[in-house]
């Protein structure tokens, strides 16, 4: 999961740079087809059946992952790198709740408190103008899209946890781009731009680092309970803050830092509570 967090942070950097000219839906399309190629080559080499056993749940994993990715990429192009990553990373709280509903994992008041504290953190990061005034306020629509992506990401994570009972890790990875590639086409056609120059190798790099991140994430989720495994992925938030400052001169203000600490504290606290409950 730590390796997954690092490579996902690199993905965020590449999307941020590419999004300066290319529409986010087009980046999703390119990334999905490249990931499909990498996943197909890997699954052929491993000699694993690409079609899997629990096809409805595999399709749900692919569809929810595609929707979450589309939301995340849009947020990355509209928000500072660290803020977009931070908003997406409230997903462990939602993962815990969905895991309780569908995987029968324990749930309690810490989960509910975690959601409330996380949402307060998001408010501090977003700084909506109707509360804080116009200065420093983020694009609230992009913030909402990012939060929707966090919920959809939680659906994908819980699906992966359930699929480990019936399907190989490589099959689970393969279904993500198998669903995402065709699903992204109708959204990418409007406003499509042909990549130029350096954008081609960057798109290729995006596909590669995302594939590595997906493999690492799927492996991590298959080895640990949903809440515990996703807690390690908070490292991506740290990486995002560093990349944002080093590459994009995005320096958080005190309110954003306070919001980030609230989100991290709530999600880490919930993950630790769930780990203790799991024994």
TrEMBL record:
The keyword Transmembrane applies. It is found in: Membrane. It comes from the Bacteria. It is a multi-pass membrane protein. The chain crosses the membrane at residues 29-46, 58-76, 82-103, 112-132, 138-160, 172-194, 200-217, 229-248, 254-273. Residues 2-125, 142-270 form the EamA domain. Pfam families: EamA. InterPro entries: EamA_dom, EmrE-like. Its main location: membrane. Keywords: Membrane, Transmembrane, Transmembrane helix. The keyword Membrane applies. One of its GO terms (cellular component) is membrane. This is EamA/RhaT family transporter. It comes from Bradymonas sediminis. The lineage of its organism: Bacteria, Deltaproteobacteria, Bradymonadales, Bradymonadaceae, Bradymonas.
């Amino acid at each position: 999961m730590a390796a997954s967090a690092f490579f996902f942070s690199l993905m965020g950097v590449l999307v941020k740079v590419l999004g300066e000219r290319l529409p986010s839906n087009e980046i999703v399309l390119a990334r999905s087809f490249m990931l499909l190629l990498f996943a197909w080559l890997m699954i052929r080499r491993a000699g694993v059946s690409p079609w899997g056993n629990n096809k409805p749940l595999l399709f749900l994993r692919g569809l929810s992952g595609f929707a979450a990715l589309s939301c995340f990429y849009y947020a990355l192009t509209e928000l500072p790198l660290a803020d977009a990553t931070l908003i997406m990373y409230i997903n462990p709280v939602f993962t815990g709740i969905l895991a309780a509903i569908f995987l029968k994992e324990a749930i309690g008041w810490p989960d509910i408190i975690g959601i409330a504290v996380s949402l307060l953190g998001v408010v501090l990061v977003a700084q909506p103008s109707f509360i804080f005034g116009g200065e420093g306020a983020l694009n609230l629509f992009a913030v909402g899209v990012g939060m929707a992506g966090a919920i959809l990401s939680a659906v994908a994570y819980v699906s992966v946890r359930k699929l480990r009972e019936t399907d190989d890790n490589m099959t689970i990875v393969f279904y993500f781009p198998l669903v995402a590639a065709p699903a992204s086409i109708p959204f990418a056609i409007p406003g499509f731009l042909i990549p130029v120059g350096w954008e081609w190798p960057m798109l290729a790099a995006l596909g590669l680092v995302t594939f590595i991140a997906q493999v690492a994430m799927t492996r991590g989720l298959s080895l640990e309970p949903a809440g515990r495994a996703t807690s390690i992925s908070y490292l991506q938030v740290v990486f995002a803050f560093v990349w944002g400052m080093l590459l994009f001169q995005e320096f958080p203000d005190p309110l954003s830092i306070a919001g980030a600490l609230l989100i991290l504290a709530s999600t880490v606290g919930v993950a630790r509570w769930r780990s203790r409950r799991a024994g």
